[in-house]
Amino acid sequence: MAKKDKQNGNQEELEQIREPEVTEEAAQAPESPETPETPQIDPWEEKYNAERDAHLRIAAEFENFRKRTIKEKEASYGNGKADALAKILPVYDNLERALNQPTEDAAFKKGVEMTMTELVKILTGLGVEIYGEAGDAFDPNLHNAVMHTESEELGENTISQVFQKGFKIGEKVVRFAMVQVAN
User: Fold this and answer.
1) Fewer C-beta within 10 Å: the chain N or C terminus?
2) Which neighbouring-strand residues pair with 168?
3) Can you tell me the distance from the alpha carbon of 96 to that of 176, in angstroms, rounded to the nearest whole number?
4) How far is CA 56 from CA 3, 27, 63, 163, in A?
């Protein structure tokens, strides 16, 4: 029987080891938080993020390129229009001189007037602004003063005479007006 008692004692010890007693205080106490594990970086996720970043950068570069080419295209059209206008300006100047010359041939004068009117109509249709009239205020950004005169009749920095009209397309000056400034 001693053998049996020894086996029962061993079995009781084993049960105590397997199931520790839980006291009421231990049951009411909150469980301690587990130590946080360092997150493992998934190589596929890392590669995905790198590829996505590269894709976004390329998309942004393309968008910038697209905007830049649109701006250059618009500027090249304006520059081409300004170059064509600069080549036509001598024709305008000659027609203006012809109109200012006295002539006895009324049909000739009428033909020059019609040609000048049509040219001005075409230039206006292209967005060309013709400026530079006697009596306007002098603006160094628009006018080229080639002469200066003293006049009591005209105010300070007033255009007294225009030698060549000025032309601009939008804000771009194609040719400065050549003027004489008073005072």
Assistant:
1) N
2) 129, 173
3) 17
4) 79, 54, 11, 58
CA Rg, the chain, in Å? 46
pLDDT tens, residue order, the chain (183 aa): 455 555 555 555 545 555 555 555 555 555 555 555 666 778 899 999 999 999 999 999 999 999 999 999 988 988 999 999 999 999 999 999 999 999 999 999 999 999 999 999 999 999 999 999 999 999 999 999 999 999 888 888 899 999 999 999 999 999 999 999 998
70 strand-pairing partners: none
For residue 139, give the H/E element and its range.
none
**Three-state SS letters, 15-72:** HHHHCCCCCHHHHHCCCCCCCCCCCCCCHHHHHHHHHHHHHHHHHHHHHHHHHHHHHH
pLDDT of residue 87: 96
Distance CA 123, CA 117 (A): 10
Pull the structure tokens for residue 106: 């009324």
Q: How far apart are CA 150 and CA 183, in angstroms?
A: 5
> What is the Cα–Cα distance from 72 to 41, expressed in whole angstroms?
46
